[in-house]
Every structure is written in structure tokens, then in C-alpha cells.
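Ticket closed. Logging final result for Peptidase family M23.
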Amino acid sequence: MAVTLPEPLLAQYQRFSLYNSPYPAHDEGCAIDLYPGTLRDGRTSTAPSPVSGTVLETRAVRAPPKPYAPEHDHLILVDCDGPGDLEGLTARILHVAPAVEAGDRVERGDSLGELVRAGFFAPWVDNHLHVGLRRPDQNPHRASGSLPLEPGVELRALEWDGTGTVVSTRATYAVLDAPIHPAPGEAFVGVRADRGGVLDGGLPHYDGGGVHQRSGIALEDESVPISLNGDRLGVAQGRTIAWDDVVVTANDEAITGLSLFCARDADFGAKLICPDRSFDIGERVRVRVRSSVDDR
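Final structure:
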């Protein structure tokens, strides 16, 4: 049974993703990455707590070595008493240098400390909190074992024809002006799959992704092909997608991939992962997905 993340928890963040990660903790959507409001450089230092409760423990954990990241990340464990049905669960929070310690009381929205750019991040990933939830009888230190999560907000699925104009660039990615958020700040949106639902995940630079709130789909449902603009992406078992052997192209040239997530900020737009290719501001782009599997 999935744990529902209530609207007050999610509403204090600009973006979230349950699947856009290479790590097993996100398998089947069993962890969520929460992105606070960011600065123009894609960074932020504020780490608002997703939950209220009592801090059980903080500890340093070794992170994969990366030239742009510190040697250690940090784990914060919180005994939750809210919001909503999270009472009695243990929150497992990563990527925050803690300003709290065991025994401290925190309310939802209180600062837990400063976000850290850990070695778990790919270079195109912005700062965020990684959160998993466990029953108190589960081992809170293991990387895997968290409960499946479900966003407790209605997601707006935005039609996107795969085209757009580049509005911002970084060393490893570019952002398009489409799809456009119709009401920034009022709702979370994401890219719509052809048969409905909001797509989530790193296509195909991570092994799989997800499709949220697709009508008629439950976690235990049979396999269903998932596509975008007629391009087959993979097969969903319930909401979890195993990507096909696909290549994402921008103007007919291969790029690393397409980042898919849920967002409520005005800067929402397709994010092209392209560390080996540059784009110019104002450049018109058409994105397609080539698959070795024929869905017809």
C-alpha cells in the first residue's frame, strides 16, 4: 500500500520527482526528491522539513566521489507526527548538512540545515532533499526498503508536441519554453503521455520512470505500452515504466536524454540533458524518441 504525501507537504516545494534518479531507493517510486525554490544558477541553500516530528538521529554517510561534490553526504531521521497520515512513520532525509540534532523538535517547513551538492547527484541535477518513509520496525539506515509513495495532489498533464525554443542553458542541460505552465504556483504539472498521465523520470539516462495518475491504472495493473507524440518510450507495469532501448534526439541529433518531473513554478519547460552538446538561447528545437521496439 502506497503512502500518500499530503498537499501541505508538497506545496512548500517547487518541483518533485519519484523516479528521476538512478538509485534503487527510487525503484517503484519508493522515494521522492523535493526541490525547493531555486536561484538563477539552479542552486538553493534552504532545506525546509517535509514533515513535523522529533529528530531521531543525524549521521554522515559516504557519497560516490565526484569532483564537484564533498566526500560525505548526510542522513537525517525524523519520527513523524504529521502531516496527515505520516504520523508514526520514520522519515529518511538525505542531501542536507544538518542544523538539527537528535531530540530536536521540528515543524513542517522548519529549516533542517543547508542543502549539499552530494556525490549522488549527476552534474545536471539541481539541489534537493531526498525523502523516504518507513515503518518504525524497519531498518532506517539501509538505502533500500522505503514504502511506495503517492502524490496527494491532482497533477495537470500538459500536452507537448516535442517542440520549443531554448530559454536557458547550463553546462549539462538546456531548458525549452514549452510546455508552458498554465497557472504557475497553483498546481503541479508534468508532460502528458499519449494515453494520459504525467511522465516522471530520466529518459533514457536512468533505467526507468513512472506515469502518475493515469486513468484506470493501479500499481498492480498489467503491462501497458507508454508513448509520447507517437514515439514509444517503454512499458508500464502499473505506474512504473521500464524504458525501451531508446535514443532521445534534438533536431535529429542524439542527446543524453529528457528529464521528466512534476513542477508548479513558472519556469517549467522541457529539460534536455546534453552535457556533450550545446544549444543557443532562442534556438528552435524538436525533440523525438527513437525506439528499437515497434508499438504498431
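The mean pLDDT is 93. No further action required.
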